[in-house]
Design brief:
Four copies of one chain form a homotetramer. Chain A is α+β, with helices and mostly antiparallel strands. In chain A, 23% of the residues lie in helices and 22% in strands. In chain A, strand 8 and strand 9 form a beta hairpin.
Chain lengths: 358, 358, 358, 358
């Protein structure tokens, strides 16, 4: 009934607040015998760390994972893997003025309405700092999927309304935004700079591509692969939209245009299908068809801005709020490894679920 | 691990195939003392019945609910409510030619890849006929929410690329598409007719509005209200996209434009907020803020079309498939009560979950 | 949160009341390709049917299973299997006098306290009639386990304080009590007759033996095999005690007596252990060790008796209750197939859970 | 599917091994606004600490809880409470000889059979050290139940076959065994001493009493209160038997003896029942009736003994094992707070579950 656990065969339970002593996750259900060490988390966590890109929040966190359980002599044991990441550069005093005031666009007011109490420091449990645990869980999921060759990559395909129109994957690998369009990136960075100067923020659209997915993942009828992926992605703060394959654009196609013709691989006699197109985004009837899973995710602009905003305090008194300090201008690119992690976790869960069947 | 159950405090488990003897649902967790009778299901089920609108599939089903348990002398008892709807007009023989061929855009091939066996008749478990159980569950959820005044309404806001630009709710109440724009509806019906004539199909976009939602629903961090609503909606066949509030459009706004200013109701001294806008779609940090929940859902064109399509059979032999018979031209309007039901079920679940807290 | 579902990989959800229109179960997670027909349920259900043994309740039920879903052309499909058993010989009017009075030893009063409403007819959901759905689920679980050679058998080892001291399995197979001691059975039947004559009831102890269990079933640390078996067995009405292996008697042994020495099979070089004794009941640290699982279950005397009893009505008025009609004198032997079914369901669940690991 | 989580509305997930860096638990679902500090755990954890009673294992652990999340300014927030207890005095080298040998009566062999890998140090995840996390969870559950006045107490009622026949609660409060019989305790301590001298071990029976339980807790039909209590208790290592109320003894009573007559409190007009006896152990039909919940738990003798034992190694080679070092002679009294904790956790879970209903 409480909601801090995700998954069935691979079950992740996260905990921690922005300014508590640590964040962490318990990953239960990881198969035994998989190599895992604290070093494996360094690179993925550094990708979501503040201060790693222009105009991002200057909070410095070391973000080192401490593995507490479930690993013995470098291998997973099949028992729950718990890990924590300490909070260090917390500066809670910055938030003292927000103790009784609700920031617009944040969960401040809804947590207060839900629980009647809230940790006001940096958004508490609702902080994007919480995603450190998701990325760590994604590392473990990635390890489970390694033998299958599963690859999950996120790309920035739109930012502040500027759309990437080229698809240069080599270029995407070289820039922190993972934008596949060189010209678009120049404009995106200009938009980031402008918003930064105006103490405002911007949003964008991320495309996720998951390759080498075995067919047959996903369960009828509620735990469809789209449903579970959609849930995991929509559970990330700042995400307000998600679409699969052709997505909203599919609604404007005829059935004859949208259906992906099924072909067999040339020279193969047994069933070994390929698809002439991928409007389905690799999922048919909620079950993977073996094609690349394609998801686009809409990220709202960061609600923390330096401009004056109308709001109320816990007594209902109207007030104007001007946030001090510096915040990220955009959740992208820091959100990219978080979204990749959510896809990895869901795919790994469904791979383990499928094992019971065949 | 299997996936035919949804919800935590209100748990629904559905079963049944398109051409089996019955479909049904077990609703566990409904509070006691709520009036419920078989008649309560008639009107909602008639809304999703085939043949109720132009160019829809002519299959005739009575769709009468039989209540098997959980109701005593007209009141729910707190014990699981099981109900079934018999399949009558099945005509399985129509599907005999599809026993070994996979229809493009359908789950035929993925079910076969997943299970190594499939009920080929009418899509089996993957048929849209399955949604009859969802609508029935929604009726019960609606009863639970009645004392709170919760209203959930679906509207067709786009069909075949034709967008509703007027917002005439009175008009929407009067047409089966629940389209709020008189002129757009004329064009939509023309598009339906054209697709029908060409033995093709179309898709569209549905907007869901849930009103009188208490603040505080939704759980940190995975069972956010958007996450659970998104999952439930994406679990409906044909849905390929979902967005909340301003959705993808929010990604093109500045933070200062997207944040909804918080105001207090005039003359009220205690905390009783209203919002100057509703870009959030009524959900902040995954928790309801008391404003109207707004969701838009992208529905792909129906994959069953009369045009020739490339596909393969279970041996991998390439073939061309021309489907016989008549199919719906569009999942709208029959999908409207299904989507409303999913929202009702998730909201009722979270209302019951919230009760444990305060 | 509601409690009518059991299991993780094999999930069973039951529904129905003693005097509703039907009882049933949805079995979700059954692997595909397993032969299953309505006839498979006849023999197991006849074993738990009233009237099948001396001094048992004369209520006549046909107890025919109707399969509603999940089976196609005689094989399971991997989709949820729903089945119902109709109630026919209900005679609700017999219970009219019990509408406002609570029978001692029954759940009448606690259901009323929990829900504020109750179906008074025959105990409603708390009736032993509910176990028909458990036996049906056990048939499906048994089918899943068939390829492993798993056998689960229940024996009456004590009744009304009369203990079986011989262990003649051949004899046990021939009597409905499945009592392995010929002399004890004679005394047990005399005790049944005496209680019948006095309009009273008796209890007893059932021993369950599960053979050919693969080692490795059960999960650290809460879902230990004993924990899940214990829960499933204690969820059967009338069960008040459960013990594994030497059970309570183990508490009187020294460690050196209770530990089961581990031997390897002669002539085998690889790890292939046998145990010199089985005080553990086939489970070590919550995980099966490959030896026979041995469980003893304490069954209380049936609370429905013809003698006058002190009780109260829904207004709290003290009264004396004399139940009319005839009831079973003992839950044994009708409970035997129910207990076997619970063990089968838990073992099948854990077999499917283990598949994800290795 | 993995098994390290217990509960529905109050969900506890534990992790950690005997010789890993820490053990811990995430408690999700604790209501907000409850006072909680690290000091609250000191006394309960000291009760289960080694070395706190005669002939117990000399391993010294500080067992200080570190609260990582879910508490803000001394109050719970409604967000998950994670806590860890560091392992300090580990002496892993003692266990090096056990790397490839299986200790009889322990989970060594079954973990190896299940996972193909195991942490051999001190039993790894199967160590009784794991119960530190359970006791910590019990502290939080106890806090949730405080306003209801719920009290849960464990008593040693039998040890090494010596039964307590007096019931002197005042005396029980004064000895670490919580044995209510002064004379029996003298004999029990002599038995402990004797077993210690022989490098052997003994078992015993613990009685749990839970008072001030609201009526109406427990769910039909699988999540009966006995079922969930039984599962939680049987999930504790060393527990091999559990019974409720009159338990196995109830099987030797007539129905007319076993049924607890229902009386109303004198002078009260509304329904406010008391029971003339408590053979039910406070639970009818799986739902609490408001009377004291009485449970007896059979604890096997500790499998770690100093006497030579027959066993095999991971290659199947037969060998004789003589364990070095010192171990507890009996799981009692250290298991007492663990069993109390399990009862508190299950009761708190069901109290929160019941809130959704009325």
């Amino acid at each position: 009934m409480p909601g801090n656990t995700l998954g069935e065969a691979l079950k992740i339970t996260t905990f921690g607040e922005s300014h508590g002593s640590a964040l962490g996750v318990v990953v239960d259900g990881c198969p035994p015998g998989i190599p895992l060490s604290e070093e494996d988390f360094l690179e993925p966590l550094s990708r979501r760390r503040p201060g790693s890109y222009l105009f991002s929040s200057p909070r410095q966190e070391e973000d080192r994972v401490e593995l507490l359980s479930g690993v013995f002599e470098g291998l997973t044991t099949g028992c729950p893997i718990a890990l924590i990441v300490r909070n260090r550069d917390q500066r809670s005093e910055h938030y003292e003025t927000l103790r009784e005031i609700f920031r617009p666009g944040h969960a401040d007011i809804t947590y207060f309405q839900k629980f009647g109490i809230r940790d006001h420091r940096g958004g508490g449990r609702a902080s994007s700092r919480e995603t450190v645990a998701r990325v760590a869980a994604g590392v473990i999921a990635g390890r489970i999927l390694e033998p299958l060759g599963v690859k999950v990559k996120a790309y920035t395909v739109e930012l502040a309304g500027i759309r990437a129109r080229e698809w240069d994957l080599g270029f995407a690998e070289q820039n922190p935004m993972r934008c596949p369009d060189r010209e678009a990136l120049v404009k995106m960075e200009a938009a980031l700079k402008k918003a930064y100067g105006e103490r405002d923020s911007v949003g964008g659209i991320v495309e996720l591509r998951a390759e080498n997915i075995p067919p047959g993942l996903g369960e009828p009828v509620f735990d469809k692969l789209e449903a579970d992926l959609g849930k995991a992605i929509l559970s990330v703060g700042a995400v307000k939209a998600v679409e699969f394959g052709a997505g909203f654009e599919a609604t404007r196609l005829l059935g004859s245009q949208n259906n992906d013709p099924i072909l067999n691989r040339p020279g193969v006699k047994a069933l070994d299908p390929v698809y002439a197109s991928n409007n389905s985004g690799g999922i048919l009837g909620g079950i993977s068809n073996g094609d690349t899973i394609v998801i686009r995710v809409g990220i709202k602009p960061i609600p923390s801005i330096g401009k004056p905003q109308k709001t109320v305090d816990i007594n209902g008194t109207a007030t104007e709020l001007i946030l001090k300090g510096r915040f990220d201008v955009c959740a992208i690119p820091r959100i990219l490894p978080v979204l990749e992690a959510m896809v990895l976790v869901v795919i790994a869960d469904h791979v383990l679920r499928q094992r019971r069947i065949r």
